[in-house]
Design goal:
This protein has 215 residues and is an alpha+beta fold. The chain has one domain: Cysteine proteinases (Cathepsin B, Chain A). It is 25% helix and 27% strand. Strands 1, 2, 3, 4, 5, 6, 9 and 10 form an eight-stranded antiparallel beta sheet that branches. A two-stranded antiparallel ribbon has the order 7-8. Strand 1 and strand 2 form a beta hairpin. This is Peptidase C39-like domain-containing protein.
Amino acid sequence: MGEDIYMKPGQSHHKLTVEPYTQWESGVASPASACGPATMAALMEYWSTRLGKHFISGKSHFYSKAEHINHMYSQHGGTPWGMNVHGFIRGIKDYIGASSAPKERYQLSLTAFNDMNRYIAEIDAERPVAIKFDKWFTFRWRGRYAYDYHWVLGIGYETSVEGADPILIVLDNGVKYKDGGFAPSKERRIPFSANKGIITMVALNIIEARELKGK
């Protein structure tokens, strides 16, 4: 499901195939503050279609990706000032909880952390990781980071044993231009250590009952 390419000795790379969502596309009701809902929607689409949890509503349940994002925004924690980590976790729990799957069939796990090794383990397990950048509420106002306040979906990494900063590969949810146009969501490579101080990662895992019994 993921993509591995040949790297030099001492380097490693893994990237998942994840369908991008763009917060700025036509039809998104509150695009300026929809990065959290867009990240949630992309994550749910992946779990529904790529990881086989078909009881989770993906984009096919809605008229469009924009409607999927709007649903996340209006029903699962979107606000004009953005979405905090607690709201993101609660929104995912509520969204999956509203699904048609019997609750006794699975165990839901959502955890927040800031650790590159844990992130790598999640990607290697074929699970994307939501990433929140927030320099305002971490009181690092003067720092220069990839984003000041933004949600993205982590889909991969690149590392080296030579001491170089490990790289997060993310889907950026799109970019709005000053002329009113926008660029669709695309991959972006972001140094982890340079942004570590303002990052919170959120990992999701859904464990089937039969997997729990086998432990």
